[in-house]
Amino acid sequence: MAGVWDRVTGTQPAPPVLLVVLVGVLALAVVAYRPVWLLARNAVTIAHEGGHGLVAVLTGRRLEGIRLHSDTSGLTVSRGRPTGLGMVLTAAAGYTAPSLLGLLGAWLLAAGHITALLWGATALLVVMLVMIRNVYGVLTVFLTGGAFLLVSWLTAPEVQSVFAYGAVWFLLLGGVRPVFELQNKRRRGGAPDSDVDQLHRLTNVPAVVWLLFFHVVTVCSLLGGGRWLLGL
C-alpha cells in the first residue's frame, strides 16, 4: 500500500519540450478537424456535464442524474432552489469546466504529478459513472475511464506521460471551441435554452455578457495552462 501511495504522491519526469509541443499540435488537429472533433467532443461533454454535477453537489443541491447523448449534448438534473447563487454557479460551471480541469491538469503536470493526474481523472470518472442515467452515457464514461485506467496501470512511464499531456492539451483546446459553437448557434437563432440563456434568466445579466465570460475563462485557461505545459 505504501508503494501505491508513493506512486500517487511522487513526481515523474516531464517529456521533452519538443514532444510536448507535438502532442499539443496533435490535440489541436483533433479539435480543429470537424469529423474527428464530432467524436472527440464526447470527452468535452463529459467534463461539461461533470462540471454541472460537481458544482451542484458542492453548493448543496441534490444531483438527480446525468445524461450524455450521441449528438454530444448532455443534461444534468439537480434538485434545490430554482434561483440563488447555487443555481447560478451550477449553470455557469458547464462551459468553464473542461478548461478549468485542463488548467488544473496543467498545474499537476508542471509539478511532475503525472500519476496523480491519471488516477485522479479515473476516480472522477468512476464517481460520475454512478450518476449516469442512460446507456450511451454509461458506455462513453466507461470507455473513457477505462482508457485512463489501462494507461495508468499497464503502460510504460513514457506512454503515461504522453497520454497525460495529450489529455490536458485536449481539455484546454477543446474547452475553447464549444463556446464559439454556442455563439454561432445563437447568432443563427438556435440554442434558445442554452446555459447563457438560463444564466440570463437567473441573474438578469445579458446572455452575451455570460458568453463573453465563458470566452475569457476558456482562452485564459488555455494561455495559462499552455505556459505551464511548456515550462515557460
From TrEMBL:
Keywords: Membrane, Transmembrane, Transmembrane helix. The keyword Transmembrane helix applies. Pfam families: Peptidase_M50B. The keyword GTP-binding does not apply. The chain crosses the membrane at residues 14-33, 85-108, 114-132, 139-156, 162-180, 208-230. InterPro entries: Peptidase_M50B-like. It comes from the Bacteria. This is M50 family metallopeptidase. It comes from Streptomyces alkaliterrae.
